[in-house]
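Need Ankyrin's 3D structure for a figure. Predict it.
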Amino acid sequence: MTGTTLHEDEGASPKELLLEAARRNNTDLLEEVLGDKRVDADFLNHSTDGVGNTALHVAAQYGSLEALDHLLDQEGLEVDPINRMEKETPLHKAVQYANKEKVHGLEVVEMLIDAGADPRIRNKQKQRPIDIVDPRDTKLRGVLQRAEYAMTAGDDLVADDDEDDHGPASDSD
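Structure prediction for Ankyrin:
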């Protein structure tokens, strides 16, 4: 086929290539997929495997740090999509990976948190990511506790700001 991109002549769909690139940490293939004009944030957020894992879930599950970095750079990418089977976010998958691969897994978790992943979301078993951390991994537990505290404190600050309409500025009416 002339002008074909994304291996259409080989039968793999852009969705399949996206998920495979995330699984294998294949940044060349990922860049090819992301460069296709049909691939936008909506495509990235809704392209899932059989159990509802997005490319972000897959990259987190396999510790594909470079692929994760590329994905998180995409404008409009949802950082907390919830899969269908376990109702888990990519952060849940990253913690499961970190339970096996301590140092590298911590980097995956930190990258997701830095991108705004919410550590308060519970899965089907009502567990937050911190609830599935290996109890001996105090470093990972600390990272998740700080992230959860920062998000909770941030929510409280926003709520306080919304409620405080009677400060000194309003006296100058």
